[in-house]
Amino acid sequence: MDSHFGLMNVWNQGDFVTRSVAVLLIGMSLASWIVILIKAVDIIRYKRLAKHSQDFWHSEDFATALNKLGKDDTNPFRALALEGREAAAHHRNTKAHLHDALDVSDWITRALRNTIDEFTARLQTGLAILASVGSTAPFIGLFGTVWGIYHALMSIGSAGQATIDKVAGPIGEALIMTALGLAVAIPAVLGYNALVRGNKFVLTKLNSFAHDLHAYFVTGARVQSGGEATVVALKKG
């Protein structure tokens, strides 16, 4: 490729606005890739935890089941189990509070839902960055192109020459900004969609686990997919 169309040439010949746009796009690209990599690692870990969460129900008592979820405080399945146990015990051991107007089912549902909502908020952290980058980067690149073309035409006009070889170089350099904007936006959009799908999978598993916990703490039975409750050999405690 001709050196006149290189990004370095755009940087060397560009003014403050052109360089600022280029730096902004590069910064947006770095931010989006950092978010994609960090969140992808988190989703892989949560999927592995979701798979292992089924071992929870193959235990003789609750303490053993809880140990199978590990000691990681960031494990959302462990957090749900602890929250459900504490909510059930709190409702059972207190008599003079306003929450006594709620039955144990509503109280445990509220506790589990709050835990899931907190985890959902943490899970979605960073997605706003990808959405912003994906929606704004093409327009920022287009602004850089328009400014570059304007700057190039002004330079050509002041030189008094408008031959094709004088026009093609500066215009081609300006168009690189549009390509850079698209190169930043496309990975951000694809990463956003992939992470949303991954988050949806994790939340589906978490809600299913919470549903089973709710049934267990309220009735002593885990609701199976067939709709019938099957008593699980877990001792509450």
UniProtKB/TrEMBL annotation:
Q: Which residues form the MotA/TolQ/ExbB proton channel domain?
A: 100-201
Q: How does it sit in the membrane?
A: Multi-pass membrane protein
Q: Does the keyword Transport apply?
A: yes
Alphabetized, the UniProt keywords read:
Cell inner membrane, Cell membrane, Membrane, Protein transport, Transmembrane, Transmembrane helix, Transport
Major subcellular location class: membrane
**Where does it reside?**
Cell inner membrane; Membrane
Family per UniProt?
A: Belongs to the exbB/tolQ family.
- This chain belongs to the protein called Biopolymer transport protein ExbB
Q: Which organism is it from?
A: Variovorax defluvii
